[in-house]
Amino acid sequence: MRTRVQVGTLCILLALGAGAAMAQEGPKTPNAHDIYCSGVVTKEAIPADTYVISGEESSYRITYGRGDYIFINKGSSSGTKVGDEFLVMRPVKSPAHIKWFEYQPSLMLAMGTHWLDVGRVKVAHVEASVSVAQVVSSCGFMQRGDIARPFAERPAPALRPVNRDRFPASSGKNQGMIVTAKDWAQVVGMNSVIYVNLGSAQGAKVGDYVRIYRYQGTRHDTVYQSRRTQYVRWGFGGTPVPYNWKDLPRDHLGEGIVLRVSENAATVLITFSLRDIYLGDYVEIQ
Known about the structure:
- By secondary structure, this protein is α+β, with helices and mostly antiparallel strands.
- The protein has helices spanning 2-24, 32-36, 104-111, 229-232, and strands spanning 40-42, 52-55, 63-64, 69-72, 85-92, 113-126, 131-138, 142-143, 147-150, 175-181, 187-188, 193-196, 209-214, 251-261, 266-273, 277-278, 282-285.
- The longest helix is centred in the first third of the chain and has 23 residues, at 2-24.
């Protein structure tokens, strides 16, 4: 019996130690998956002249992944040759027609189209009007009609030490909001990818850091909380003088690094988070 108790205690201690280690784990340098599977929101017109026709075993297969062979609509007559590489992407819209915060639809419209990175392919065989390419890396499934663009290296921004200040002062630089997130997540945290309405037109560039924060109370209604909930609905006490959101320190939620930038949007990898982060939370260039 004593042995069982000791073993049980050891398991609990190991679990607690593992949890503590995870809690203290620092941010990781953006890897190839972070960079080439991050997606982008842009108003730029992306050429759709090169695309996936289908792939091997197309009589019963409709999706393809790493190691599979796909067919694209460009061959030797278009200058395609063995060894050429393409990044495959797809325009997407959220399947959930939910407005998560007040200005989300209008902000998304101003940012542009959400393009999903699907993967990377390398041409293995060329014919006159079509080519066969192997999927060498995959972010998700490929399907007929996906757009293929010539491969181009994307910069890997340098990581800096985490700023663990719970109440950092405002940088005074441009501010924006988390408008949407990769895979349509509504709650995000460390290592999540988010899309914010700060682009090159607002001074954002690859490698910039953004601070993620929330105002006390709410400036705008969201589906997560109602305006002045803590004061009106539940009546958790009161103060002689009412305080405005501008009078109180902001809730520091975390920070992230800019991976990609378009005119009015940036793709951000969250490198550190103190608590859950929601669509509609605020960001500020540091």
